[in-house]
Specification:
By secondary structure, the protein is an all-alpha fold. The protein folds into two domains: 210 residues, no CATH class; 205 residues, no CATH class. It contains 17 helices and no strands. α2 runs parallel beside α7, α4 runs antiparallel to α5 and α11 packs antiparallel against α12. The longest helix has 33 residues. It is globular and about 55 Å long. The relative contact order is 0.12.
């Protein structure tokens, strides 16, 4: 298959897969809104936000370290050994954190805005975190080995599996949040099982790789910090808002935050489509081509993000007929969300270029600074302007992140800073 045809196939399957995943989740939103109270819906938003932050914190992102390290190895056997090892270490680290934290929360019996002290819900969050690690790993594997149809299968299963499972079981529960969490876990388990079956041949025969843990942690710790700070910028408003506002008042903000996630996913899909081209060009030393691919992908992502928000603004005009009481969304909140999404897409450029140079730790410093700004601004503005203030805090933090990220990239682009591309020997050492 020609490189151009392979690229088109990747784009089509990655796009279709993500559309199916997000399409299923968006079809789920009206069902959640119609079956849940405003408080339950806000707590479900806190649940998904909690999973997104706990996965990188507990796993240190070791399970996805192969996203960059994969390209340093030449044979399929070496690549399989790398991926097997990162999955094993990722699960071990996650379990090592999940077990004691879950036990402490259970024994301490301290209520929080999400679980409200429910022991069952505490351990369900733990199960959601563990199963998400496995699903994320196989989703990455199918991208790395260039199997777009399998990636699309995983994505579709996550989206429509959750929709179907919740639809089937929700009438058996008076607590609709519990029904949604059980549906989330069940969907992850079924998707992980299917991914293991279809992904087995890409990991078989490789065994495990010695000496890769330190290398994986060194790279992944930077991406872990990035993910945590991305969560702070995009999801922390749900938890900050719960501290300064009634939970039910966050329903509209939670709804809009799902739109920002969808818009961000557009950029994620486009950049992941080009992962092999971006990382491959950089590994060959063709940095100019790497920049061209990254720039084109960013511009296309911005254009699609703009279309997403134009559609949202059009639908917003009919929100009173579409949404129950308690879910009203102000136009200013949507416009602030659009600004936030645009800044997030623009930041993808320095983020991917820094990843190419393995400067994830430097980028993490940038994101930590931006995250601190986001938390402070959201806390202050949220008390003044409610949901709009929470979103404006995210916009301010993202603006800081973009400026600092581009300063970092301008330094990386200097020829003297690029340095030689490391060659990895069979034992995993760099020379």
């Amino acid at each position: 298959m020609s490189a151009k045809r392979a690229r088109i196939q990747r784009f089509l399957f990655f796009t279709v897969g993500t559309l199916l995943q997000k399409g299923g989740q968006f079809l789920l939103l009206p069902l959640l809104v119609s079956t849940m109270s405003a408080a339950e819906f806000a707590r479900y938003g806190q649940f998904t936000a909690a999973v997104l932050i706990l996965v990188p914190l507990f796993s240190l992102n070791v399970h996805v370290a192969a996203g960059r390290l994969f390209f340093d190895y030449r044979t399929k056997a070496e690549q399989a050994r790398l991926m097997n090892t990162t999955l094993l270490w990722g699960l071990a680290l996650t379990a090592a954190f999940v077990a004691p934290v879950g036990a402490i929360l259970t024994l301490a019996d301290i209520p929080d805005p999400l679980t409200l002290g429910s022991h069952e819900l505490i351990w369900m969050v733990a199960a959601a975190v563990l199963t998400t690690v496995i699903v994320q790993f196989y989703s990455l594997v199918f991208r790395l080995v260039d199997r777009p149809p399998l990636f699309a299968m995983v994505s579709a299963s996550l989206g429509f599996g959750l929709l179907i499972t919740y639809t089937v079981i929700e009438h058996w529960f008076t607590d609709k949040l519990m029904a949604a969490v059980i549906a989330y876990i069940a969907t992850n388990v079924l998707t992980a099982f299917a991914a293991m079956v279809f992904g087995r041949r890409h990991l078989s025969g490789g065994g495990l790789m010695k000496g890769v843990f330190g290398q994986s942690v060194s790279y992944a710790s930077g991406t872990m910090t990035q993910n945590v700070m991305t969560w702070v910028n995009s999801q922390s408003g749900r938890w900050v808002g719960a501290m300064i506002m009634p939970v039910a008042a966050l329903a509209g903000y939670t709804l809009v935050s799902y739109v920002t996630m969808a818009a961000s996913m557009v950029a994620v899909v486009l950049f992941e489509t080009m992962r092999i081209d971006i990382m491959g060009s950089h590994a060959r030393g063709d940095h100019a081509r790497t920049r061209r691919i990254v720039n084109r992908t960013m511009y296309l992502s911005l254009a699609i993000t703009a279309m997403v928000y134009l559609l949202v603004l059009a639908v917003q005009a009919f929100q009173d007929e579409l949404l129950p009481a308690g879910y009203h969304v102000e136009r200013h909140l949507v416009l602030a969300a659009a600004a936030f999404s645009a800044l997030q897409v623009i930041f993808f450029r320095p983020m991917w270029l820094a990843a190419c140079f393995k400067r994830t730790k430097s980028l993490a410093v940038v994101m930590v600074a931006a995250g601190i700004v986001t938390l402070a601004a959201s806390w202050y503005l949220g008390q003044l302007h409610g949901a709009l203030g929470l979103m404006l805090g995210a916009v301010i933090g993202s603006a800081v992140q973009v400026v600092a990220g581009y300063v970092l990239v301008s330094r990386l682009m200097r020829p003297s800073d690029a340095g030689p591309v490391p060659v990895v020997e069979r034992d995993g050492s760099q020379v």
